[in-house]
Amino acid sequence: MKIALLQMDIQEKNKSQNVEHGLELLSKATMGNDVVIMPEIWPTGYSLGHIKEDAETMDGNVITAMQTIAAANKCNVVAGSIPMKLDGKIYNTSVVIDKNGLVLDYYSKFHLFGLFHEEKFFAAGNHLSRYQLDNLICSNAICYDLRFPEMFRHLALTGIQMIFVPAEWPTSRGDVWRLMVQARAVENHIFICAVNCTGIFKSEPFYGHSMVVSPTGKIIIEGDDKEAILECEIDPEDIAKVRSKINVLNDVREEFIK
C-alpha cells in the first residue's frame, strides 16, 4: 500500500485559502498513491470562534471536491478532519472517501481537549470507525485521542490493523507526539499513520513530524517542521510477521479493560 501524508501549513482565520491550498495539495498527493491522509481541521485551523459558520456538510463543497479528486486519481482519501454539521450538532469529523469517490465511513472525535475547552465548540463523537482499504482493516482517531491508549487497544482487539490519526499538535509537546505515536503502534502490533500540520496559531508553532510507524514501533517515514507531501509504502503482511513472534493481544486480560 502506497501512502501519502499531506503535512499542510494551515493559515489562522483563513478558511478560503486553506481549502484552496489543501485541495491543490490533495490533487498532487493522490497521484500514484493508494491513500492520502490530511491533518486535523485543516479547512479552518484551530480558529474556532466562527466554527458554526465554517462547518461543512456531507454534501457541501469541500467534501464534494475531495470526492472528485479521489475518483479522478483512483486514490482513497482520509480527509484529515473537518468541522461537520451532523444531527443538528457540530463535530470534529474525519471523513473517509474511497477511490471511487464515495464516502466510505466517518469518525467524530471521541475525546475533546478540555484544556482548550473544545466541548464549547464540538459535540463528542459516539461511534468508532471500521472500514477496509485494500487489504487492511482500518479505523480513525484524532489528535488528543492519542492520549487514551484504551481506545487503541480496543480497536486492535476488534481486528483493526491500521489507525489514521490526523492532528494539530504543537511543537511544545513534540517529544510526546513521537513517543505516543510509536507506543500506540508497538503495544498493539498495528500500523499508525499520524499526520500533523505545520504553521502557527496564536504565536505557537505546530510540530509537523507526520509519520508512519510499523507494528514493531519502527518509524517508516517522518517529516520535519515544514510543509511537505511525504510518501512511503507499507506491507500489510508485516502485522502477521510481528504477531507470529510476539503477540501481546493474545495475553490481554480483558476483564480489566472497562
Structural write-up:
The protein has six helices and 15 strands. 24% of the residues lie in helices and 26% in strands. The strands form three sheets. Strands 1, 2, 3, 4, 5, 6 and 15 form a seven-stranded mixed β-sheet that branches. A six-stranded mixed β-sheet has the order 7-8-9-10-13-14, with helices on one face. α1 (15-29) runs parallel beside α3. β11 (200-201) and β12 form a beta hairpin. It is α/β, with parallel strands linked by helices and 258 residues long. It starts with a strand and ends in a 13-residue tail after the last helix. The chain has a single domain (2-256), classed as Nitrilase/N-carbamoyl-D-aminoacid amidohydrolase, CATH 3.60.110.
Spell out the blueprint of helices and strands:
Layout: E1 2-7, H1 15-29, E2 35-37, H2 51-54, H3 61-73, E3 76-78, E4 82-86, E5 89-97, E6 103-108, E7 131-133, E8 136-140, H4 149-157, E9 162-166, H5 174-186, E10 191-195, E11 200-201, E12 204-205, E13 211-213, E14 219-222, E15 228-233, H6 237-245
Parallel strand pairs: 1-2, 2-3, 8-9, 9-10
Antiparallel strand pairs: 1-15, 3-5, 4-5, 5-6, 7-8, 10-13, 11-12, 13-14
